[in-house]
Amino acid sequence: MVDTDQAVDLFIRRLLLRSNLNLHEQEAIRSLPRISVRVHARRDFVLPGATVDHVSLVVAGVAARFDLMRDGSRAIAQFFVAGDVCDLPSLVAPRAGWGLTALSQVQLVQIPLDALRRLVSAYPEIGAAFWRDSAADAGVLAKWVGNMGRKDAKARVAHLFCEMAVRIEATGLGTRERFALDITQEQIGDAMGLTPVHINRTLMALREDNLIFLHSHVVEVIDWERLVSFAGFDEVFLLLDQPENARMAT
Amino acid sequence: MVDTDQAVDLFIRRLLLRSNLNLHEQEAIRSLPRISVRVHARRDFVLPGATVDHVSLVVAGVAARFDLMRDGSRAIAQFFVAGDVCDLPSLVAPRAGWGLTALSQVQLVQIPLDALRRLVSAYPEIGAAFWRDSAADAGVLAKWVGNMGRKDAKARVAHLFCEMAVRIEATGLGTRERFALDITQEQIGDAMGLTPVHINRTLMALREDNLIFLHSHVVEVIDWERLVSFAGFDEVFLLLDQPENARMAT
DNA sequence: CGATCATTTGATTTATGTCAACTTTTGTGG
DNA sequence: CCACAAAAGTTGACATAAATCAAATGATCG
């Protein structure tokens, strides 16, 4: 269980970025029942329309929330990296309208929904912390909607890398200048609403401009400030600022 | 106060579509302090980056969550119609990363955040209901991301009308075949990531195909089944199915 | 070490954007 | 209630970002 202990610590650390949980509450999270699951790359672990009885915490690798179009193509709406919980909303709405898939090989820790519900009932601030993380996820989705509507391929992809840079840096698993992101160009395309061919050309253009260099699943940001400015990125929407006041009740 | 009573009833009715709240809880919501506010069309009532101390419930008209691009253009990420609360997430994250604007003339009822927080602490199921509604909103955002990435203008706009049809029908303020939607073509464009000129052409094409007829802010769906099929619409993501089991604790 | 998967490249097509004018509707002050 | 200004909608000609199709190369993984 040392294995899943580390995973839960990662999760708690992530919650503490946004919410102020006391040691008692942290300990309660630590004592949640859980199982460790490995998912192969390109395997779906929640099918669209399924009703889940657990949530999945990503420990390693990259997972995604996807939607199936009628022609069989996939749209990716969210990326999940280490520390992220894929289906927090299913705590209140267990019938998922979406699917979850492993983009790379993914290590998950799964926690039963009923245990989580008991936890949330017993510790309302933990519920608020979960809700706060859901709100942050929704903020990211809203930002994606805006970007997809109003930015061209280059700025859109640049913005995605800014977002992932900050999120991954926040978990401590990389820096914003250099971090691992184990996804393919085709998957980036599914997320940005672009074809793999165009993603390829876009990445090469970003490299030409000395903004980003993506090579064997490592992102190197060559000039963070210029990248931020080019992408029109403002990290406020990630809600990763100080959680001093982030308790619901006092 | 009869005025705002009706507004809150509308709100409760909306919550009951997704959540199972008992009479005690409903009464508690009814007794919330609140003020009535009218906002002119094209006026912002929450600016991006502002910290709010109340939430805004839409009673009449159409409001939107928007993001400002650096060139000054606006992207709309969400529409809010009667019964919707615009900024539920600010209950857990009061610093809004987004802005709220009135697309048409809007009648709001504003409820102080601290009163809402006390309510949620006292009645955890109400908190769950709010969270569930936030989850539904996030589901809509995720759907928009997918649509913007993978559908062309015609299917995207068709999908939007399907969504609004079902949402408005659920509030009882219209039918899916015919409902009021007081927004301009330019605003539809801001939401769908298209120019007003192209929205105009797209609407005309949808009318040619006998799918939708939009005329003086009334949407008439000519053939619902064909529209749904053309748009690839599946209303599951709205979470408007039966709330029998929709209580967190039992 | 072969097979599948991922990336790269080039030629061509297409959906949507841009620009600019015009018409219709809506709202407002006299 | 009219007159007029402003906003919204419509149309056409043209430009362009990204899609599509097709093929070659390079990387990964049993």
Structure overview:
- 2 copies of one chain form a homodimer.
- The first copy, chain A, has 250 residues and is of the alpha+beta class.
- In chain A, 44% of the residues lie in helices and 20% in strands.
- The first copy, chain A, is built from 8 helices and 10 strands.
- In chain A, the strands form 3 sheets. In chain A, strands 2-6-4-5 form a 4-stranded antiparallel sheet.
- In chain A, strand 4 (63-68) and strand 5 form a beta hairpin.
- In chain A, helix 5 (153-171) packs across helix 7 and helix 5 (153-171) crosses helix 8.
- Chain A is globular, with a radius of gyration of 18 Å.
- The two termini of chain A are 34 Å apart.
- Chains A and B meet through strand 4, strand 5, helix 3, helix 4 and helix 6 of A and strand 5, helix 3, helix 4 and helix 6 of B.
- Chain A binds a DNA duplex (30 and 30 nucleotides) through residues 152-153, 184-186, 194-198, 200-201, 204, 216.
- Rounded radius of gyration of chain A (Å): 18 Å
SS strand fraction of chain A: 15-25%
- CA distance, first residue to last residue of chain A: 34 Å
Q: What's the order of the H and E elements of chain A?
A: HHEEEEEEEHHHEHHEEH
The rough form of chain A would be described as globular
Structural class of chain A: alpha+beta
Oligomer: homodimer
pLDDT < 50 stretches of chain A: none
Strand order of the largest sheet of chain A: 2-6-4-5
Mean pLDDT of chain A: 92
Question: Could you give the count of β-strands of chain A?
Answer: 10
Total of DSSP H or I helical runs spanning 4+ residues of chain A: 8
What portion of residues of chain A is helical?
40-55%
Largest interface, with Cβ-Cβ < 8 Å?
A-B, 58 and 57 residues
**Main pleated sheet of chain A:** 4 strands, antiparallel
